[in-house]
């Protein structure tokens, strides 16, 4: 039996919901969890040298049980239930290309999507990339793009960098790093994808036949659908006949209202229209969607867009120009809705269909296209999800093999899209403003300044840039060793360092600092907390917020990409509950793939002495294996055998011994520990609730970011207007306005975007509005 597992918590019907208010959050998942360490190694104090050991890599675990299945009537388009077997997870995804090889036009996308076992991915450092030989069709823009790496997004960025590096000179890679401010699309008749200015294949064919019989005399005919439709249809035809730059640009003007293409767009569209697969790497918000939209309009059949999150699909569906009919299929569709969509597909009334990657596992879904117009184009959005390096690695993306798409859907042309997250350059506009600010009064007179950044890499780059510009600055984030961090804080407090460029990790309890936000905080709570570090000594302090739309778009996209899909939740549940019969009530663990650092030890204690002093130590040593002179034991099993209900107790105990200089230890495989309170009766149902809950958390974050952005924009606009009026900038205007917005946010219920869902209501069936 199969189940669907789209990554939504939402109900999406053919007509999009306009109300963006998410419902009250459901209660939390049933699991009680505590943070953890799993395996610890204790060494005696005689080991005086401090070594850095790497934790062993997580091995894929196999579960014995299969997950429960969902009743057929609940899902009109079932797909196989994810098994609890995690062994496939760290499978293959991206092949690192030897860049000195010349690769055929289709190779990068194919390789990106092959995902076969032979194609096992190698981590970047162990895969040297020879110097590029150039000479490819890769289009690379000039200019700059602000790249950000957050603690959360580090892996994604690293991956994207590796991906872009490795793909840098591939022939079918289109890439641009040029920054252009996002332009507003001209207003169209409606926003939803089902607002009719109908261009469909039937209509198109009928008109084509008609125009043939009328000797092509109808080219500028205007019917009740409006001139725009006819003209764009006509232009569409021209482009089909000849996809010249001129024709495509005219079509762009007609469909989107833009005068010209941004760098990389035209090339991507031309490749797609010519039936050639393309890997498109453009900065966030640069207009990747437009590339498949135009190609979809020109190509004869259906365009299938694979997107990892329903929230993203909904966003993209909304952004389709009115003349491109779109729809999406997800698991929360009722059978009537799904069949209505299918019917529209059959009639050729849908040009672009958004689906989750899991759909490709569904034989019924794949066979559906035997009765519809052919699929001419497959777009894989957020293609970085395909790599296990990626922060949002999606196992289901691994199954999106070109071979599968070709064999089952008979599609040759694939467009894989991902955003660049380069850290090579910072946002130059903001950087200039920052330097100007730092070199002008009153900041030149201020002793302590904290500059808040979102991402660790930003803090490093920015502090370097400030130093290069004669402003001494240090970076501070959780990736910096504790000793160095403490020293930075000490020196900052004693006025030896004037500027610290930091992530959220810095500044707690500090006063007398002025605060600059180099990036937009994710919400007003964060903003208030961080600016709250200024002026705590009662003196006058200054807070500056530098932001632009690009940062906002980027944060927006990161928030969305944090989502977890039901498929993954299902697998996690499968993993957690696979042995629950034997482990009921016991502390269990899931190993995290991270390395840990070995800690120094001050004095020597013999294990026997330790055991004699402490029963816990005795148990621990009894349960240990001696490996290379170190006692290695499994923390949950020690905790269980002494009847401790939380590994935190054991962890604290180890920390205490360490602080007393009794032991040194190394946590080998940090893991999340959990206790199974009750085994759920219906996995699918729980997975749906968990996914919905996570999706609501995600929506809530997005709305909070929107509130932050709106408040900042409002304040900036207000200040700018006041400046014009008063012929001079008034900081107090700015302050008052922002204060007003913040007050509104925290006091007026209707303005509060939402509280983060902390609870997940069990059994909740309500449908989410997006
Ligand atoms: N040629 C163009 N001229 C002006 N504006 C454009 C052009 N192409 C796209 N845009 C606009 O840029 C904005 C961002 O586009 P889009 O959402 O497609 O970016 P994206 O690269 O897909 O972003 P993400 O990485 O977040 O998915 C949209 O408002 C779009 O209409």
Automatic annotation (TrEMBL):
GO terms for biological process: double-strand break repair via homologous recombination. Its EC number is 5.6.2.4. One of its GO terms (cellular component) is nucleus. Residues 430-602 form the Helicase C-terminal domain. It catalyses: ATP + H2O = ADP + phosphate + H(+); Couples ATP hydrolysis with the unwinding of duplex DNA by translocating in the 3'-5' direction. SMART domains: DEXDc (SM00487), HELICc (SM00490). This is DNA 3'-5' helicase. It comes from Protea cynaroides.
């Amino acid at each position: 039996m199969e189940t669907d597992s789209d990554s939504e918590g939402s109900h999406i019907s053919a007509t999009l919901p306009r109300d963006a208010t998410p419902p009250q959050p459901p209660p939390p998942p049933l699991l009680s969890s505590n943070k953890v360490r799993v395996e610890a190694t204790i060494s005696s104090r005689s080991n005086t040298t401090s070594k850095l050991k790497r934790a062993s890599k997580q091995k894929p675990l196999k579960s014995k049980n299969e997950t429960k299945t969902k009743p057929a009537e609940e899902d009109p388009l079932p797909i196989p239930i994810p098994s609890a077997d995690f062994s496939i997870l760290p499978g293959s995804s991206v092949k690192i290309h030897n860049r000195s090889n010349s690769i055929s036009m289709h190779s990068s996308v194919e390789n990106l999507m092959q995902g076969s076992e032979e194609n096992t991915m190698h981590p970047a450092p162990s895969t040297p990339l020879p110097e590029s030989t150039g000479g490819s069709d890769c289009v690379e823009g000039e200019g700059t793009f602000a790249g950000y790496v957050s603690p959360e997004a580090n892996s994604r960025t690293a991956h994207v960098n590796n991906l872009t590096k490795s793909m840098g000179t591939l022939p079918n890679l289109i890439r641009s790093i040029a920054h252009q401010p996002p332009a507003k699309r001209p207003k169209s008749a409606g926003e939803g994808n089902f607002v009719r200015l109908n261009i469909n294949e039937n209509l198109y064919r009928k008109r084509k036949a008609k125009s043939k019989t009328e000797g092509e005399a109808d080219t500028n005919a205007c019917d009740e659908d409006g001139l725009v439709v006819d003209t764009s249809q006509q232009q569409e035809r021209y482009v089909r006949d000849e996809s010249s730059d001129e024709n495509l640009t005219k079509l762009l003007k007609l469909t989107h209202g833009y005068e010209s293409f941004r760098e990389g767009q035209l090339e991507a569209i031309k490749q797609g229209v010519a039936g050639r697969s393309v890997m498109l790497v453009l900065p966030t918000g640069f207009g990747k969607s437009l590339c498949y939209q135009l190609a979809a309009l020109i190509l004869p059949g259906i365009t299938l867009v694979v997107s990892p999150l329903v929230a993203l699909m909904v966003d993209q569906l909304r952004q389709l120009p009115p003349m491109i009919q779109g729809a999406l299929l997800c698991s929360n569709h009722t059978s009537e809705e799904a069949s209505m969509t299918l019917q529209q597909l059959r009639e050729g009334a849908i040009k672009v269909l958004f689906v989750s990657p899991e759909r490709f596992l569904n034989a019924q879904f794949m066979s559906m296209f035997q009765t519809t117009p052919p699929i001419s184009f497959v777009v894989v959005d957020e293609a970085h999800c395909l790599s296990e390096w990626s922060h949002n690695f999606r196992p289901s993306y691994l199954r999106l093999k070109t071979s599968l798409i070709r064999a089952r859907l008979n599609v040759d042309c694939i467009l894989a899209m991902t955003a660049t997250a380069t850290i090579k350059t910072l946002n130059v506009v903001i950087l200039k403003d920052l330097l100007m600010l730092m070199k002008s009064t009153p900041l030149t007179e201020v002793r302590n300044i904290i500059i808040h950044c979102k991402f660790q890499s930003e803090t490093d780059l920015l502090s370097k840039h400030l130093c290069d510009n004669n402003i001494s600055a240090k970076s501070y984030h959780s990736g910096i060793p504790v000793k160095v961090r403490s020293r930075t804080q000490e020196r900052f407090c004693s006025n030896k360092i004037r500027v610290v460029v930091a992530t959220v990790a810095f500044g707690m309890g500090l006063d007398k600092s002025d605060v600059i936000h180099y990036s937009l905080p994710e919400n007003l709570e964060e903003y208030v907390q961080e600016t709250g570090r200024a002026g705590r000594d009662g003196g006058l302090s200054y807070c500056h917020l530098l932001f632009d739309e690009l940062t906002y778009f980027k944060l927006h996209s990161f928030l969305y990409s944090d989502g977890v899909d039901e498929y993954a939740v299902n697998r996690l549940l499968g993993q957690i509950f696979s042995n629950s019969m034997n482990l009921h009530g016991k502390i269990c663990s899931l190993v995290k793939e991270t390395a840990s650092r070995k800690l120094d030890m001050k004095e020597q204690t013999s294990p026997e002495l330790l055991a004699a002093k402490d029963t816990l130590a005795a148990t621990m040593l009894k349960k240990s294996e001696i490996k290379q002179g170190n006692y290695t034991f499994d923390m949950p099993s020690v905790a269980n055998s002494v009847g401790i209900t939380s590994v935190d107790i054991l962890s604290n105990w180890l920390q205490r011994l360490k602080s007393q200089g009794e032991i040194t230890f190394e946590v080998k495989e940090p893991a999340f520990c959990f206790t199974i309170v009750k085994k759920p009766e219906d996995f699918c149902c729980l997975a749906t609730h968990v996914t919905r809950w996570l999706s609501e958390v995600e929506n809530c974050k997005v709305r909070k970011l929107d509130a932050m952005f709106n408040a900042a924009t409002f304040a900036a606009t207000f200040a700018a207007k006041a400046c014009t009026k008063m012929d001079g900038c008034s900081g107090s205007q700015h302050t008052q306005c922002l204060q007003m917005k913040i007050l509104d946010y925290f006091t007026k219920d209707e303005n509060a975007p939402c509280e983060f869902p902390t609870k997940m209501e069990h059994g909740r069936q309500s449908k989410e509005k997006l």
